[in-house]
């Protein structure tokens, strides 16, 4: 028989079915359980380190917030339903993040995942199923708090609620935990990751997923905090002397050689703009770019002036996919043109979209709040891209991608770069790939469908072209059943490399389709008699990270590399930059350290364009106005992404800094006068490069520049 509860004031409307301890501690314990579970399954980050303290404190504080809100709700049934929804939704989010980490080696923002969910489910349904099957233990463990809450819900969200003194104590504990965690997070060595350098990928290992989600929402509303820009203003000290004597390396340089070896810079009055600017961020940016030393014109300036350009971002291409027998065209083009021995495509933590952005803009890609540089750039002024510089000279600027046209918002950002873009579903006909439901689609078919259009126009009426391709045949999964391009070339790879794993064999096999696409393209150019009038440039979007199984620790990429163990995080991203033309009679060896953000400024110089080298994150690879053993803000600099909050690795002409080990190793023959001071200055330059690249897009900086007429 029902017996009403009689409280101190004689109120009889609710029953006491549980104590305040369970009610207060359940949600803090549940949230901490999820954070610890996610951390325990992450093989790439240590479980016990200093970051565990703020994660525990933030989890307790956030759990107490939920407990107090549900306790204060007058509608207890609604509070219990809310508890079920929160625990179920939380479990799903943690599982999705675990899937992203296991598959892409990254933690993604919730907004980014939400925007991509439909495309991922539609285009990679089979991959998603395989990922889910591999995560069954994590998924089952993630729903333990929900399974515990359902039978205990009346004891956790109690009818009578807590007494006010208890609520006051809980609120005090909440404030103390939140404040302590905040101070530990912002005043320590990782404080920038909590504020102006915030990304979900860097925040989760240090502050936990729930706090990262809170910061993502907060910065989406208020904007990401501005970095302390005054710390990044560089002085021009260390400016080298006049450029060294010209190299004696073989050169395809045309006979019409400009004598002017002056700076590649426009007449931009940065000082005047800074003086007139009232916005402090823009003022600082004007001052920063005024202090950047322009790269100098050199013996390769104008080498391809008026010629055609084909730029390709190749899906997951690596040096180890280039084989003289299996991919003969790739081998030919990478060994008979410019031969880059120290080219890198860093992991920008943005997967394909980040690598493509770096190749096509010369700007370091960043996360911008809950979005990214490529996505935000769709609504920004981008006058420094190649199409915007070449179109006024009469160039056609078509672009294609042989997968769904809007899987990433290429239909928005590539047009903002100046490209006339087409993909499957929006102007690119790929009948064979679509009819056979191939995944990935055929790069060869894309080339067969598109190359004639611009080649014929050039032959018939002399219209020069800058064509752009984003390929897809090299995409994972790298298995015979999960990759149609791999299956297509299976027999050839297994015959040559019978002892390799299936994943390594499948990776090599699918890149044979890219080789066929390049073979078709070169044959077309040569048949039309315009191979000498055309420069082909190709770089990867990222290394083939899907060869690394994070959940098991198996690293099949190292199998191709011939390493038993992983090396420093710079060598993993060493890649190949293809730059070939029929006009190059002998290979031109390039030893300068360089990366994907150097491609656009280098091409601007090769094509003799009027451009300002200070406005890019990268530099002209052939510029020689620096000394290898001296610091300068115009020296060669390869910047690697701040992956998992270890800091940025970097490479200069003087040496290599590995963030994993926090060690600097000078290159052979280099002696620095003050190694510690050099490393400190390069750290500051790297921070400046990354932060100003972010602000270029975030603040729409190019739109605020007064370019000369």
Word description of this protein:
The chain is of the alpha/beta class and 709 residues long. 46% of the residues lie in helices and 10% in strands. It has 26 helices and 20 strands. A nine-stranded mixed beta sheet has the order 8-7-6-9-1-10-14-2-15, sandwiched between helices. It has a four-stranded antiparallel beta sheet with strand order 17-18-19-20, with helices on one face. A three-stranded mixed beta sheet has the order 13-3-16, with no helix packed on it. A hairpin with a 2-residue loop joins strand 4 (367-368) and strand 5. The termini are far apart. The model is unreliable at 1-17 and 237-258 (pLDDT under 50).
Overview features:
709 residues; alpha/beta; nine-stranded mixed β-sheet; globular; disordered N terminus
């Amino acid at each position: 028989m029902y017996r009403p509860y009689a409280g101190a004031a004689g109120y009889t409307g609710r029953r006491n079915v549980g104590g305040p301890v369970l009610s207060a501690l359940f949600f803090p314990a549940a949230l901490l359980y999820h954070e610890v579970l996610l951390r325990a399954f992450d093989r790439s980050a240590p479980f016990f380190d200093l970051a565990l303290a703020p994660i525990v404190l933030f989890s307790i504080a956030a759990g107490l917030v939920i407990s107090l809100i549900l306790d204060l709700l007058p509608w207890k049934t609604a509070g219990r339903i809310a508890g079920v929804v929160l625990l179920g939704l939380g479990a799903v989010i943690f599982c999705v993040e675990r899937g992203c980490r296991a598959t892409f080696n990254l933690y993604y923002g919730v907004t980014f995942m939400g925007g991509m969910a439909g495309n991922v489910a539609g285009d990679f349904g089979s991959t998603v199923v395989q990922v889910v099957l591999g995560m069954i233990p994590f998924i089952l463990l993630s729903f333990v708090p929900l399974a515990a809450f359902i039978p205990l819900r009346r004891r956790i969200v109690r009818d009578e609620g807590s007494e006010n003194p208890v609520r006051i104590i809980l609120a005090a504990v909440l404030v103390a935990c939140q404040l302590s965690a905040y101070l530990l997070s912002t005043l320590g060595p990782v404080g920038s990751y909590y504020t102006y350098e915030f990304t979900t990928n860097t925040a989760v290992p240090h502050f936990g997923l729930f706090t990262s989600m809170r910061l993502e929402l907060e910065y989406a509303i208020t904007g990401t905090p501005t970095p302390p820009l005054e710390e990044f203003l560089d002085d021009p000290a260390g400016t080298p002397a006049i450029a060294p004597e010209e190299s004696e390396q073989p050169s395809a340089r045309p006979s019409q050689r400009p004598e002017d070896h002056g700076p590649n810079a426009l007449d931009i009055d940065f000082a005047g703009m800074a003086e007139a600017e009232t916005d402090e961020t823009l003022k600082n940016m004007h001052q920063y770019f005024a202090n950047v030393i322009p790269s100098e014109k050199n013996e390769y300036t104008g080498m391809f002036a008026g010629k055609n350009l084909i730029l390709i971002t190749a899906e997951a291409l690596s040096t180890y996919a280039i084989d003289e027998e299996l991919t003969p065209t790739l081998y030919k083009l990478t060994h008979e043109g410019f031969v880059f021995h120290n080219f890198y495509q860093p992991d920008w933590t943005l997967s394909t979209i980040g690598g493509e952005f770096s190749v096509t803009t010369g700007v370091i890609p960043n996360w911008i709040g809950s979005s990214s540089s490529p996505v935000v750039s769709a609504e920004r002024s981008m006058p420094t891209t190649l199409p915007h510089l070449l179109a006024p000279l009469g160039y056609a600027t078509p672009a294609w991608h042989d997968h769904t046209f809007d899987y990433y918002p290429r239909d928005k950002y590539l047009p903002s770069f100046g490209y006339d873009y087409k993909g499957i579903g929006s102007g690119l006909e790929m009948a064979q790939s679509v009819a056979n439901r191939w995944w990935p689609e055929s790069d060869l078919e894309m080339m067969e469908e598109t190359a004639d259009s611009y080649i014929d126009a050039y032959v018939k009426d002399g219209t020069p072209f800058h064509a752009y391709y984003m390929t897809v045949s090299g995409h994972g999964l790298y298995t015979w059943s999960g990759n149609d391009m791999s299956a297509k070339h299976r027999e050839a790879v297994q015959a040559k490399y019978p002892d390799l794993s299936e994943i390594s064999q499948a990776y090599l096999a699918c890149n044979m389709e890219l080789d066929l696409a390049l073979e078709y393209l070169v044959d077309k150019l040569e048949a039309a008699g315009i191979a000498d009038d055309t420069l082909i440039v190709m770089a990867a979007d990222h290394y083939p990270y899907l060869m690394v199984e994070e959940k098991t620790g198996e690293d099949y990429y190292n199998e191709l590399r011939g390493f038993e163990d992983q090396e420093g995080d710079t060598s993993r991203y060493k890649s190949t930059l293809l730059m070939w033309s029929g006009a190059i009679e002998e290979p031109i060896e390039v030893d300068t350290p360089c990366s994907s953000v150097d491609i656009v400024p280098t091409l601007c110089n090769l094509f003799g364009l009027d451009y300002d080298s200070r406005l890019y994150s990268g530099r002209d690879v052939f510029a020689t106005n620096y000394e290898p053993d001296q610091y300068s803000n115009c020296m060669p600099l390869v910047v690697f992404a701040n992956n998992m909050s270890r800091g940025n690795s970097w490479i200069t002409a003087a040496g290599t800094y590995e963030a994993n080990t926090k060690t600097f190793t000078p290159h052979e023959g280099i002696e620095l006068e003050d190694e510690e001071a050099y490393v400190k200055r390069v750290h500051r330059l790297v921070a400046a490069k990354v932060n100003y690249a972010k602000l270029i897009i975030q603040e729409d900086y190019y739109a605020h520049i007064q370019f000369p007429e």
